[in-house]
UniProtKB/TrEMBL annotation:
Protein name as it appears in the record: Heme chaperone HemW
Cofactor(s) annotated in UniProt: [4Fe-4S] cluster
Annotated ranges, domain Radical SAM core: 2-243
SUPFAM superfamilies, per the entry: Radical SAM enzymes
Superkingdom of this protein's organism: Bacteria
Species the sequence originates in: Marinomonas maritima
């Protein structure tokens, strides 16, 4: 089978934040514990990021970067100069597709807002603003350090800085949140008119403060009501749900995330960053970079990475776990295109079982395509369990 390599993206991880939120299980660390004279080790971290990238470049052999995402932590904590230097170096070291989508996560705090225009001038063209809620009591519960007015002003400030592609992160199912409170949050987010809304339910993850001290969450009936009314409200205002927790205006989907869910490739650099890379012989492996910032800063690139080949028997679950997050129809041939393996019998049988259970669409299947039904969207975990090896 001839190898046509998938699209390639870049992920850059900045591990520092002002304060660790009680729900967060990302690789983030309180900034002041790593500062010297009130400053993060920006120069040292940038040098290590670029050395990290250099170590991965032989695996991607000049393939163009279609999208990039700078995540964290709170990337907007870093200085304007850091991003001018970073983006210049990335342009020098990498081949970029025309009009590549380059996203940065940002907090709505006033301190970060003052840098938005510099981020845009450095070459970042999409901003993802972590609002989570507009309500003072919920922001306090979530450990957020911004307020309602700062959240609203952050959108205005990003527009003034030249960003015409903005995502807002908003959570629901928050501690003691009512249906009315959730709809108030969502309505205000819609009123701010972002191109994209990531609207997702709070989940309690291990190794978080909420896991150790669980808050009181809304009952299931309230959660169902929030989901139903919220999606109806989003649809009414022109936001199309194309993924489990992603809604966008027409032609404004997050291209970077689409590449993840379509089983594309991505280089991951930075403390705790993950990557997925396909070689020209069809081998697929994942990378994980060492998590702790101090270990990342003080070791050679060869010591930073763990490589795990994806075994052939795991490919059906790996592929379907990603593709079925998207609500688009896809051709079964995509499995062979992205895994370089013949379509396996167990995958076909799992799809046939899902069809009988009403989790996959029968009309799409007649055309050798897969599409999740409305029932399948609601019972996605049960659908994915059918593809376990």
């Amino acid at each position: 089978m001839s190898i046509q390599l998938p699209p390639l993206s870049l992920y850059v991880h900045l591990p520092w934040c002002v304060r660790k939120c009680p729900y967060c299980d990302f690789n983030s660390h309180q900034a002041d514990r790593f500062e010297t004279n009130g400053k993060l080790p920006e120069d040292a971290y940038l040098a290590q990021l670029l050395a990290d990238l250099d170590a991965d470049l032989p695996y991607v052999a000049g393939r163009p970067i279609q999208t990039a995402f700078i995540g964290g932590g709170t990337p907007s904590l870093m200085s304007e100069g850091f991003y001018y230097r970073l983006m210049d170096a990335l342009r020098e070291k990498l081949t970029w597709a025309d009009n590549a989508e380059i996203t940065m996560e940002a907090n709505p705090g006033t301190f970060e807002q003052e840098k938005f225009s510099h981020f845009r001038q450095a070459g970042i063209n999409r901003l993802s603003i972590g609002i989570q809620s507009f309500q003072p009591n919920l922001l306090k519960t979530l450990g957020r350090i911004h307020n309602r007015d700062e959240a609203i002003h952050a959108v205005d400030k990003s527009r003034a800085a030249g960003f015409d592609n903005i995502n807002l992160d908003l959570m629901h199912g928050l501690p003691d949140q009512s249906l009315e409170m959730a709809m108030e949050d969502l309505s205000l987010a819609i009123k701010l008119n972002p191109e994209h809304l990531s609207w997702y339910q709070l989940t309690i993850e291990p190794n978080t403060e909420f896991y150790r001290r669980p808050p009181t969450l809304p009952e299931d009936n309230t959660l169902w009501g929030i989901q139903d009314e919220g999606q109806a409200l989003l649809t009414q205002h022109g936001y199309v749900q194309y993924e489990v927790s992603a809604n966008s205006k027409i032609n404004r989907r997050a291209e970077h995330n689409l590449n993840y869910w379509r089983f594309g490739d991505y280089i991951g650099i930075g403390a705790g960053a993950h990557g997925k890379i396909t070689l020209s012989n069809g081998q697929i492996f994942r990378t994980r970079k060492t998590r702790h910032p101090n270990h990342y800063l003080n070791n050679l690139p060869e010591a930073l990475v763990i490589k795990d080949a994806i075994e052939q028997e795991d490919l059906p679950l790996e592929f379907m776990m990603n593709r079925l997050r998207l609500f688009e129809t896809f051709d079964l041939k995509d499995y062979e295109r992205f895994t370089y393996q013949t379509l396996p019998v167990p995958l076909i049988k799992a799809c046939e079982t899902a069809l009988k259970q009403g989790l996959l669409d029968t009309e799409a299947w007649k055309n050798n395509c897969v599409k999740t039904t409305e029932k399948g969207k609601l019972f996605l975990n049960e659908l994915l369990e059918l593809f376990l090896p």
